Structure prediction request, 93 residues.
Amino acid sequence: MDARQLIAEKIARLHKETQSGLQKVFSIRSSDDTAKSPIRLLEIVDDTPAVGIFPIGFRPIHHLGITLPSVIVEITPFEYDNLRARKLNLPHR
Prediction:
């Protein structure tokens, strides 16, 4: 397992421990990713507002072992169903 995947799993684990209503977390990877690319996660959360795809960026948190920036997208289960039905799209970058 590469360092990027370990960091993604650490962020997901922290979010699962602290965020109520979090159902699933998916790591979003691209063929363009490098060792320095931000970690991108899609989170399915029961009680998040339905605002569509709204990426939020975060800086590294070195003291927690999160040494790369990250981008989190939270969506509702309904929005996730729309994403799977291709009625909603993730940004390409």
The two ends are 23 Å apart (CA to CA). DSSP finds two helices and four strands in the chain. The mean pLDDT is 92.
